[in-house]
Amino acid sequence: MQFRKKRLEKAITFHVNDWLRSYYDDPDIVSNVSLTGVIVADDLSYVKLYVHWNRSSLEKDLLPILEQQSFKVRKLLAAALSFKRAPVVKFYYDEERDEFNNLCQVMAEIN
Q1: What is the mean pLDDT of residues 77-99?
Q2: Cα distance between residue 66 and residue 61, in whole Å
Q3: N or C: less crowded end of the chain, CB within 10 Å?
């Protein structure tokens, strides 16, 4: 089962990245928004998509916009991949990069 989940995670990453690049016409948004992680539930009914963008470069919060479009991503995944039932898609902001940058700043200040 783990092999299938990993294979699905890679395929979902590919399709969602492609969708993100085609959905936004603004090159500033496309260059700053990235899909950083995909987690598929064991029963394949739920997909968590972790996205990250540089909050200082984008003045608006994109998470509610992505959440409104999650049904389109679900429809895209159902068409592109063979699912008996399309999984529920949920977007999350990935804060790990922000925490890493903050840690690097603190380390630089210490040295």
Answers
A1: 85
A2: 10
A3: C
The structural domain count of the chain equals 1
Q: How far is CA 42 from the centre of its chain?
A: 19
DSSP class per residue in 65-80: HHHHTHHHHHHHHHHH
pLDDT at residue 21 greater than cutoff 70: yes
The two tokens of residue 63 are 């998470």
Are 81 and 11 in contact by the 8 Å Cβ rule? The answer is yes
In this structure, what CATH number is given to the domain that contains residue 22? 3.30.300.20
Helical packing angle, 2-23 and 70-80, nearest 10°: 120
Residue 77 to residue 38: CA distance in whole angstroms? 13
User: Range of 40's domain?
Assistant: 2-110
- Angstrom distances, CA of residue 102 to CA of 15, 59, 94: 31, 20, 14
